[in-house]
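INFO worker-7 received task bundle
INFO bundle size: 2
INFO processing item 0
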Amino acid sequence: MSMHAAEVNESRPSKYDRLIAAAKKVPTVTTVVVHPCDESSLRGAADAAQAGLIKPILVGPVSKINATAAKHNIGIAGFEIVDAAHSEDAATKGVELIHAAKGEMLMKGSLHTDELMRAVTAKATGLRTERRISHVFVMDVPTYAETIFVTDAAINIFPDLDCKRDIIQNAIDLFNQAGFGTLPRVAILSAVETVTSKIPSTIEAAALCKMADRGQITGGLLDGPLAFDNAVDKEAARIKGIKSEVAGRAQILVVPDLESGNMLAKNLAYFAKADGAGIVLGARVPIVLTSRADTPRARMASCAVATLYADARRRQTVNAAA
């Protein structure tokens, strides 16, 4: 569920390279790879393992996985394989492995995203927490100085105020814990930068900022409503007379709904030639969502971000128990 970028990105210096280098320095994260039965998903897992980011457990039809590896010359010797009859069974068994503490991350293979997420969000057997599950695109936009987050453009279709609170907190936690820095600048986007009853997202943006003032959202600097131009361009913010620590230099872009977020992410990918790594947050473990359209660097970056986040969570658990 991440963005395709032009092939020219394969040769240019990337913000992702720093993420991947950082992830190589932390302990390998055991990762349950669900139904890796095509070349891109199986190669993505194998490449991340070769880079020292993950230790894969492959879950799916053994015959299909082995046939894919043989056909495309992908080395999977030494990988544990858990047999599953089909993609739905693989998703169920993958979640069961997480419950059994056999893995610290989930990674989507060649099954549909909704198949995986049905198993993840199942009330009785899934991986829900008290936090709403949401998605973040971690985007490397060549023309923007910062690595930028776009959320939520893949999971929550029409998030209400409480859901947006969790979407923001999930993104802030990822930013703070995965090595991007601290106190990220969060822009809550709308069509305009003033509060008006005619555009409900501006009212929610203002409410979310007040929630942050009251400690209901922590760890980031929020401003909103902001239009896209004055969220990412200092001159646009200056012309509009907006003075804040966020305007013109946002690091997390919170969209009004999935439709607008998906269009924004794809605009960045196809017009600005950005790469987009995808990760799902708010479940018991981070979930890597990849697609056949991903560049190899984007697939590796998705694993790197999730690995850094999983390692931070692991260290938090150890420290809490000490």
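INFO item 0 finished
INFO processing item 1
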Amino acid sequence: MRAIQITEFGGPEVLTVSDVAEPVPGDGQALIAVDRAGINYADTHQVENSYLSKAELPLIPGGEVVGRTADGRRVVALVGAGGYAEKALIYPTRAWDVPDAVTDGQALALIVQGTTAWYMLKHSAHLQAGESVLVHAGAGGVGHLSIQLAKLWGAGRVIATASSEEKRKQTLELGADVAIDGTPEGLKDRILEANGGKPVDIVLEMVGGPTFDESFAALAPFGRLVTFGAASRQAAKPLEPARLMKGSKTVAGFWLVDCLRDPQQFGTALAELFELTASGKLRPIVGGDYALSDATTAHQDMRDRKTIGKLLLDPSR
């Protein structure tokens, strides 16, 4: 079968199409014919072997797929690795039926990015009605869904950052009250200005480095910053306990893998997102549908911040 199999770690250039043997199901596994694989920013780290969980070679990247099982069910599944291929192995406990009213692309937008936004707002940040929320990379996979969910759940003011005027306009169309340039220099001042001169209650942050530092500086007393990535590949300044104490601030880390310790709750979150999407209250955006042979381009476009919404790979092309 056709798959992206890497034999060395590196950047987008290591993603090439190979002919590999079909995977053979082990105990408790099933084989799925992949209609689309989802692309996540975490995949770029997996290919470099710079992610939280270390990878081994040879590796077929891709942690999520949507497709058909042998008995004809259309499911979206978390696979950890192996998704960039015509067929992949799934565990039934990490696969969920996709409602007819939800497209393949929407299902892939929701299973990682949607659930990430759901958990961060509900469980990590404990969003309360009327609070201000700053969403970094507001046009991205997690960002565009976080904006919509924050507004649905009663946020008082949602501020989005984005790297271009076109993306900032997109975030406003999704419901953000104001959109600002996410460049680190002077970011704190822009955040305060966007929030009427006041610090913000909640920050969803996945850039790291100076962006983390500026965002933390703009956090209100009893504010919560949730960090869930380091797209800049830069380290933030060390955070001393005294800086948390002054202002009674909270910094919470988030990794979706930890949510899978409770598959029932994860399924509940995904079902709610499916229902919101089917009813038209939530609009997951598919920003690119790439051929498998264009995986290198897809990863490079994502790293260069050229993309919006969810990116897909089509293993048939």
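INFO item 1 finished
INFO post-check item 1: The chain has two domains: 2-97+285-314, 113-257.
INFO post-check item 1: Residues 80 and 222 are 35 Å apart (CA to CA).
INFO worker-7 idle
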